[in-house]
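Hi everyone,

Forwarding the result from last night's run.
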Amino acid sequence: MVPINKETVAQILREIAVLLELKGENQFKVRAYLNGARTIEVLDQDLKELVETGKITDIKGIGKGLGDNIRELVLTGNLDYYQELKSSIPPGLLDMLRIPGLGPKKVYRLYQTLGITSIRELEYACKENRLSDLKGFGPKSQGNILRGIEHIKKFQGQFIYAEVIPKAYNILEALKGCSEIKEISIAGSLRRFREVVKDIDLVASTENEEKVMDYFIKLPQVIEVINKGSTKTSVTLESGINCDLRLVKPSLFSYALHHFTGSKEHNTVMRHRAKSMGIKINEYGLFKGEKEELIKVNNEEEFFKALGLSYIPPELRENMGEIEAAEKNTLPELVKYQDIQGVFHIHTNYSDGRNTLAQLVEEAKKAGYKYLGIADHSQSAIYANGLQLEQIKRQRAEIQEFNEKNPDFYVFSGIEVDIHSDGTLDYPDNVLELFDFVIASIHSNFTLTGEKATQRLIKAMENPYVTMLGHPTGRILLGRQGYEPDMEEIIKSAKANNVIIELNSSPYRLDIDWRYLRALKEWGGMVSINPDAHRVEELYDTYYGVQMARKGWLEKENVFNTRSVEEVKKYLQQKRGRKNE
């Protein structure tokens, strides 16, 4: 039997809820499974013990039917009802849920009324204008669905960095088991920390290419060999991601690593620079003069030095001014993960987080943090159990009691308040003043774009109680484009209103986009690298935000949560002081 934990049980219960909606089942049944999933997630007791003793149905919200299903899942690792549900629904309906704004109810209606069972059929129906008069849809919805389908097609075959990097390290470690390999490194867009990548690039050095390539294609992670050569072999891994391995002689490793790290634009400018110095540059070396004498280097630092440049970190190699800065020796001292002192935007089980305050603090201490900023959802976020006033007061009292008893760690009391369509906030000022900090975020009406979205965000930031602007574009990588405000205007307004812009480090958001960070830095703005954590393990997502901050040229001084707890307290108190003037 395959072991099954409470997280897996909760996930399956959620999937059942989606499947039930796709079948048009009543909402009470759907809600029962959703509530059951949340209940299981936050259980403090041992799930298997509760099942074995029959006490699972003593838990509030878990009736006999749901309890029997949980029991079957935990004891057998399988659930017949779940398998029957999946087999009763065309698989294409689940694919259609990937389209932004298309939920289970609408997919069910399309299936029932038009017989649509796939994204391709839906696209054809939209182009035939069949949704324009359909109840619950209309011309605007039809246009949005078409744009959503185009978005999916555009990003097909692309992967989020955080999903790929563990697999890259897994294959890297496996290859280190080959004694013929002298040096090996991840290269390409992964090494440059691009938020979305297409494949895995590896560069290695060896004196025996044939043995290394044979070793590579026989790894258990490899399910298909696309092509095999002595210097390059391409395979598909069991995860569906393609992986390229390039081999060079040991003396040529540094040249190849630079070349295959890229980007293409960076390499083009580097070649022009080298040419102006009478040097030819490619993946096999630096060659000087008519005789093309090899300039020997032992590492990338020496490679850049040979071209009159200071070392350029991989994440900056995008031809965005890094070569000019390296020439002048003015590259920034990039922020490091170790610089982060604490994190904000943490959700607890008061709203839609899985863990208690105590559990989050315990993990934060393990991560080396000195403080946490709790920010559960506000009242309009019904889907996320947004906090009512009594819950706010109870949570604040819990945080205050913790701080009094734990002088070695500090918890800041905050809220993630919804920004309404008109830019007003979800609580009045007399509630907002209760918090140490306020994150203002958009969670609804994503159709406002351009100027309207910009004004909506600016009006929210003009509220004197707003400390941070949460995930400012609302994008979901490979899922939702976001509302595309004028980011220059947002950055200017944030600076003018003394508002910190969040760099949301959830690997599915990474919002604000790193391409805007140079402008933010030049305007004297500040980011807070926030994990938007809903469970303890997500505290470590801060790492991805730090990598994006580095890619955007940010230094320690540009990041709010590199400050000590005392510095943060002072900043927030000064902000509150200005509110009261």
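Residues 332 and 553 are 6 Å apart (CA to CA).

Cheers,
N.
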